[in-house]
Amino acid sequence: MSLQLDARQRAMLAEMGVRVWLPGAGRAADPAAAPAPAAASSASVQDAALPLPSPPAPRAAPTHQSAPPPASAAPGPRPEGVAAMDWPALQAAVANCRACGLCAGRTQAVFGVGSRGARWMVVGEAPGETEDRLGQPFVGQAGKLLDNMLAAIGLARHIDATTETIADSASQTSAGGQNDQQKSGVYIANVLKCRPPGNRNPQPDEVAQCEPFLRRQVALLKPRIMLAMGRFAVQSLLQTTEPIGRLRGRVHSYQGVPVIVTYHPAYLLRALPEKARAWQDLCLALKVFEQLPPDNR
Ligand code: URA
């Protein structure tokens, strides 16, 4: 029986550390060397001979973010009107937020990254040390794994001129006005925008204070599918305390957007056998996305 794997599947297996025997290769092929597709939207990715993309270079914090408050700054009220903000106002509100104690310890708030025309949205937990320093989500080891997992299904966080300028939803819905890069892009954000000290778990009051920001990001982005990665993303989006193991394999919903639940990449780095399950989750997400009406992808 021959094992027919396309580039995407081989790249994902490589991420999981699974070696695959390829007919004619004479030895177990190392899928780490397998090509990754350039974009999910292209059906021709199967023969693509591209290497896995390296994680994007850290990006300087956006210039319109104001300086963080001094370490002694006491928590204050959350900015009002979050539910009606546009992207720049929302980003500025997050940068200046002092609604919980985490503002005192942050280098900067980590808003989110990716094309604002992206169809896919990934929601993680909270910035870690590297993210706090660089102002971008998922740039540490877990971020590298996340990027490679996304690359295996043809997605990338595009950090380019379009990233910060595709803010207007009217331009996102016109079929012709959306380029492939935006479509194959993914927007990445966290439940918490500020780093919990010592990378401790988010506290319920912190999640509650930050929740309107994520809610507004979703409303502005209008993703076609979301990946909730890890316990805190799942609990926050789905308002449940059920364990991930019981929520996986089903399609949930947040603001009408299909949500697929999966493990957090940081957990996958420690629990290698779970990578196979994470791959199943990505495949489910891809299937759900591909079953959307063509004019909604
Ligand atoms: N883990 C997360 O959930 N988010 C990050 O940005 C980094 C690590």
Features of the shown structure:
Uracil-DNA Glycosylase, subunit E, 7 strands, alpha/beta, binds uracil, five-stranded mixed sheet, 9% strand
Fill in the CATH topology: Uracil-DNA Glycosylase, subunit E
**Structural class, from helix and strand content?**
alpha/beta
Number of strands: 7
Count of distinct structural domains: 1
Bound molecules: uracil
CATH domain class = Alpha Beta
Straight-line N-to-C gap: 35 Å
The coarse overall form would be globular
Largest sheet: 5 strands, mixed
Structural description of this entry:
The protein is an alpha/beta fold and 297 residues long. The protein has a single domain, classed as Uracil-DNA glycosylase-like domain (Uracil-DNA Glycosylase, subunit E), CATH 3.40.470.10. 33% of the residues lie in helices and 9% in strands. It has 11 helices and 7 strands. A hairpin with a 2-residue loop joins strand 6 and strand 7. The two termini are 35 Å apart. About 22% of the residues have low confidence. The site of uracil has 12 residues, from helix 4.
What's the short story on this structure?
This protein is 33% helix and 9% strand. It has 297 residues and is of the alpha/beta class. It has a single domain (56-296), classed as Uracil-DNA glycosylase-like domain (Uracil-DNA Glycosylase, subunit E, 3-Layer(aba) Sandwich).
